Amino acid sequence: MSDALKVLYVDDEDDIREIAGMALQLDPDIELKTSASGADALSVVQDWVPDLILLDVMMPGMDGPQTLNRLRQDPARASIPVVFITARTQPEDMEMFMELGAASVICKPFDPMTLATQTRELFSTIQR
C-alpha cells in the first residue's frame, strides 16, 4: 500500500461521505481517510499527510475555503493539493475556488462509479 494515493475526503454529510468513501475504497491504489469537518481534517493531517484532499465547500463551522486557508498557513501542509467538491458550479464560483488555491473542482452530485478514476486522473494532472 506504500505506493497508494493517500486521499483525505472531507464532508459534513454522513451519507455523501459514506458513498464517496465506499467509491474510493473500491480502488486498491487509494488509501483513504475521511473527516466530517474542516477542524477534524486539520487534525487528521497533523498525523497523516495525504497526497490529495477532497474538500466539501459548504460545511458548518469551518467551511471548505476556511479549511483550505488554514492548511495554507501550515508550512508543512501548505503544498497538499486540495480539490473542492461542491454543487456550486457557476463560472464565478469556479473562478473564486481556483483563486483561493484549489487545484481543481469536482461537481456534486459526483458519480460514485467514476470518483476513484476521476480522483487519480486529477492527481496525475496536478502533479505535472
From TrEMBL:
The modification 4-aspartylphosphate is found at residue 56. Pfam families: Response_reg. Residues 6-123 form the Response regulatory domain. The keyword Phosphoprotein applies. Coiled coil: none annotated. It comes from the Bacteria. Keywords: Phosphoprotein, Transcription, Transcription regulation. This is Response regulator. It comes from Hoeflea ulvae.
